[in-house]
Each structure stands twice: as C-alpha cells, then as structure tokens.
# Entry
Amino acid sequence: MSSANKVALNTGILYGRMLVTMGISLYSTRLILSALGSTDYGIFNLIAGVIAMLSFLNTAMATSTQRFLSFHQGKKDLPMQKKVFTNSLLLHVGIGLLIVLTLELVGLFLFNGFLNIPLDRIEQAKSVYHFMSVTVFFTIVSVPFTGSLVAHENMLWIAVVNVVETMLKLGIALLLLYISTDKLIIYGFLTASISVLSLFLYIYYCFRTYEDCTLENFTVVDIPVIKQLTSFAGWNLFGSLCGLGRSQGIAVLLNLFFGAVINAAYGIANQVAAQLNFFSSTMLRVLNPQIMKSEGANDRKRMLRLSMMASKFGFFLLAYFAIPCIFEMPAILSLWLRNVPEHTSIFCRLMLVGALVNQLTIGLQSAAQATGRIKAYQAVVGSVLLLNLPLAYFLLNNGYPAYSVLIGYAFIEAIACVLRVLFLKYLTGMSITEYVNRVFMREVVPVFLTVTACYFVSNYLESTYRFIFTTIVSVSVFSVSIYLSGLCKDEKEMFDRLFVKLKSTVFRGKSYASSK
# Structure
C-alpha cells in the first residue's frame, strides 16, 4: 500500500473510531451517573483524576518510543528497533512500579483528612484508589506496544482495542444497574480489569505480528538507548507541562481577578477548542510515523514536505469547523448549554482563533522531533508559551477585560509559530520562503473567502437555525477554494489520484453487487 493510501486509510479509521466511541461513552456516562449516584460518581472521578495527571507522562513516553522506532524503521535497522523496544519496555516496567509505589505512599496521606470524602465511604474510596494504581501500572506498560503500533502505522488495531474498551465500559454501566453489592467497588475493580485486558490485546498482537517486538535480551540494559529515550521523553514532557502550566495558570489568574464564575466560561472554551482540534490532531498522528521514517531514511526533503503538509491540512481541518463556529457561537452555545455563562461566547471565539494560529506550524513540531534535537526547541518554545502568565497578569492588573487574556494567548501563539519556523531553519535547513509559499500563502485565499461568506450570511440573514445555513455555506466555499487555490500542484495530483481510486472502488463494488 502506498504512503498516501495508508495515510488516508488510517485517518478514516481514527475518525470512525471517534464517532463510535464518543457516542457510546456519552451514553455510558449517563448510565454510570444514574447507577452510582452523584456522591460515588464524584468520588470515583476525584480519585481517577490521578490517571489524567499522568497522561502527560504517557504521551511524552509514547512519542519517544514511536519516534525512535519509526526513525530506525526508516533506516531499516532491525537490531536497533529491537533494542529500542526492549529497553523501552524495561524502562516502562520500572517507571510503572515506581509510580505505583509513589501512589500507594501518597495514598496513606490522601485519606487521612486531606480529601473531602464522606466518612462512611472512606474505605470504599481507598479500594478504588488501589484499583486505579493498578490501572496506572498497566497503562504505562502498554506504552511501548502502542508506540510500536503507531510506528508501524497500524491504527486499526489501536482502534479495535479502543472500541473494545468502550463496549466493555458500556457493559459495566449496564451491569451496575442490576447489582445490589457496593457498586463503587465493583465499578473500580472492573474498570481496572479493562486496562489489564487492553494490555494483553496489545501484547498478543505485537509479539505475534512484529519482528522488532521481542523479549530478546530484555534484561540487558543498553545505557545509551535508555538515555536517548529518557532525554527525548523528558524534553517532550517539559513542553507538555509548559502547555499545561499556561492553560491552568490562566484559569487561576482569571479566578483571582473575577471569581469562580469566569472559570466556567474558560472551561467551556477549552472544551470546545479541544473537541474541534481533534480532527486536525488525528491527521497529525497519522502523518507522524511517515515524518519520522523519512528522517530515518535520510530523506529530509520528504520529511519537511510532509511536515508542511501536516501544518497546512491541520489548519484546514480545524478551520472547516472553527470558522462557522466563530460566527455562530452564541446560537451554538444556547442550543448546547441552554444557560450559557457570561463571557463564554467571546472566550470560545478567541480560543478558536488561538488554536488556528497554533495549527499554522503544528507539523513543524513533528519535524523537530524527527531530528531528535529537541532540547533547545522545547526549552525556548515551551518557555515562550509560559509568557502568557505574566502578560495575562499585566492585562488584568491594569483593568483590561477578561477576554484580553485570550487575545494575549493568540499573540503568544503567533510568536511561538515564528520561533518554530526559525528553529526548523536552524535544525534542518528548511527554506522559510518555501514554507510561506506552500503553507501560509495557500491558506490566505480560502480563509478570506470563507470569512467573507460567513460575515454576510450572519449579518444579513435572520433565522433561528441560521447557524446550519452558515455552516453549509462555509464548508462549501472553503472546500472549493481549498481545491482551487489551497493545494500545491503535487498535492492536487495526489488528491485527484485518491479520488479516482475511490471512485473506481465504489463503482467496482456496485458492479459486483449487481452481478450477485
């Protein structure tokens, strides 16, 4: 299968998984809340929050494993792929045991008056905490296997396991409605069991399918490989923590100046941006292995071309939904939330603008990771993101409105974009002129035409459900303008080939069905 077809297939798989899991998860949440009740459900989410906090570590380590596996796949260096996998697995087992030990020690203090949990539910909460510690261990140990699957561009098995997890969670939710024993403990135990099953599915498939997934020399520690993995993961973690610090720091400052009500608006804005950003982040996840493999094969020209493509199409995928949402945000929020907190609309609009600015260079971050030289990159770009906090404090302390913080957010994102371009020029010799011509200039016309169309519709058409018409107009104008002016010649040829192949596949399927 060609690289383009594989990217298209994997993107479709991940989007399909999203649609299946999102709907089932929302329904499961309603059932679980009904079965457990508000108190027990709140206790579970309070304790399970520890997994969310550790997700940054998992993401950083998974990126590290996947980068080195993809890089050496590009070099066709199987012995090195085996070393990376076995040392990554050994490292994750050690990290998992260390974190579980830490969690158990911290747990001795958490339930001794620190957490606000009803006294009659303390013992049950402790049991759930132990189950969550087990979940953390198996989730961490699964990282080398998911990293290997991503490196091999096998999104299908990841999607299969995710769907199985979602279906099992739905089964647990239904079971809770019919059992009479302590539902909180049962829910904690069964949820932990899912992580064990998921790890088993990953282990079974990877060991059975991939030659580089092996326990050969598992107990032999390769210090240089361990150092590479931990250093790369450490700087990725630093970048992630800077993003988290920026986000949570702004929340704290808004709370200090305006109180808790403003945090509801900020939280909703973050949620809206995160949901819409999923479409572009999914495509980047699919392209990442190809970017890493190209660098490993010493094909830097292709690596840079793919990273520019990731930036451009990441921006387009977000803009498809973000532009009409920006114009119709009040109507969308009213339909979704009924009671919309003050400032939510302007917060959501500005947050989406900041997210769009970020997408302008999102692929260049993958290109920097492909080179392996990310220390200076993460130190500088990550630190710049933290400048949001002093800037926000200055604005709020001088009487500027709450939304000015998010204008500053978009401004800092623009600075970070410029720095990414300059770093890629330094790290890889990327032509800034080529980036501007292939990415930025190709985005100007589609965005201008779509914004103009949405402006006229939203200002001159009065209707309760106008946002539907605005979305249709926006998507239509954006799609046509992207094809006519947003694509480079080679990208347009690639899309034409994919369209012809898809068309022939569909008609061949119809012919086969009619012959039956």
Observations:
- The chain has 18 helices and no strands.
- The radius of gyration is 24 Å.
